[in-house]
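Supplementary Note 3. Input sequence used for the single-chain structure prediction.
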Amino acid sequence: MNLKRLLILNLVIALMISGAGCGRKDFSALSDLGGLYQSSMKDVDFSLEITGMLSEGGTGAALEEDTIQAAGSMNGGQSSNKLLRWGISRKHNNQPPDADPGAPELLSKYNAFYIGDTSKKEVYLTFDEGYENGYTPKILDALRDNNAKAVFFITGPYLKEHQDLVRRMVEEGHEVGNHTIHHPSLPSLGDAELEEEILGLDRVFSEKFGKHMKYLRPPKGEYSERTLALTQKLGYCNVFWSFAYDDWNREKIRGAQFAYDIVMRNLHNGAILLLHAVSKDNADALDMIIKGIREKGYNIGDIDNIKFHNQ
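The predicted structure, written as discrete structure tokens, is reproduced below.
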């Protein structure tokens, strides 16, 4: 067994002994496992950001795929590696959406979540930052001006190429989450590859900013019971969403009013809103969206409170 795998194994064993939970990990002995400094945007495929994306009134799509044989997996058959695609069916009248049958129970088993406390008028802003399209400064300005906090899920090339923006996220009190180095579908990876994609990103983030990531958003919304189990052992809480739309498609520019209207139409108690920072519509609408959320009686919450609610 080489030194890299031995260090990973020791970390996993320590986490299993101490108990899994968001942020319970120590990477002091680990190198840059994932090769973040060698990564670049040309190595990352964002052509299809969310495979389980649904339109309003759609039905869930999470339980349709076959089992993936991940190379190098040490799973031993303990957890299924059936490819699951996160899917929700939106409801009208600001009601929480329906998730795929069995999916909420599976997420809860591994300290993952997609929604907060549905008895409280509280919503959570999250942004996926696969790559920079020039709109994040405006998004950060709107959050600052409205005294609102968000979670930004970043990739390896984003951290490598836009440390100034990541530093601003950290310094202005936002949570920075893990979206892996190269944005792969996690069930397709062996254990070592999966760990490198996540730990390599976290290691460099910690070196730069003196803190670790606690939350993981699986790229493309693709996951399996195996990836939930393994990432939980690594100390992460997987964060899905209860609202998203096709804002990741840069060819669909429909204006700030469209972005505002679709978010307002789908607000609900405990909502985790997934917005993509590559969207000009989102950047232009965010000030209006935050004000609209509050005008409708919702608070913008702290993602850490969801963790405690789900435990």
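DSSP finds ten helices and eleven strands in the chain. The mean pLDDT is 83.
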